[in-house]
Amino acid sequence: MKKVTVVLAVVVLVVALGSLAFAAEMKKGTIKSVDAKAGTVVFCAEGTTADVTLKAGKGVDLSKVKAGAKVEASIEKDTLEQVMTAKPKAAVGC
Q1: Domain tally, the chain
Q2: Domain annotation covers residue 19
Q3: Residue 36 within any structural domain of the chain
Q4: Range 15-30 burial, b when 16+ CB lie within 10 A, else e
Q5: Residue 6 to residues 9, 17, 30: CA-CA distances in angstroms?
Q6: Cα separation, 52 vs 25, whole angstroms
Q7: Is 32 a member of any domain?
Q8: What residues make up the domain containing 79?
Q9: pLDDT tens digits, the chain, 94 residues: what are they?
Q10: Is 94 exposed, middle or buried (0-12, 13-18, 19+ CB in 10 A)?
Q11: Residue 58 CB neighbours (<10 A)
């Protein structure tokens, strides 16, 4: 019985870790351009100078995405899964 429990625990751990590896990554950055006809956006992540062309996922409404917008984007491989306006940093001090 203990062997079955150990094997089951190992399987659950492997599946959990595997799913984390494929999870979408959240990045802050700027939308450089939007091509609604092609269903793509050009995105530049904060801290980089490289622009990346991303395909818009099925749930992304490109009519609400504007060039120059500061955003938080959920990216999986080369697909933009979700995009939302970045929250401005709170002012510190008086």
Answers
A1: 1
A2: no
A3: yes
A4: eeeeeeeeeeeebebb
A5: 5, 17, 47
A6: 14
A7: yes
A8: 24-85
A9: 677 676 566 655 555 544 444 557 899 999 999 999 999 999 999 999 999 999 999 989 999 999 999 999 999 999 999 999 877 666 665 5
A10: exposed
A11: 7
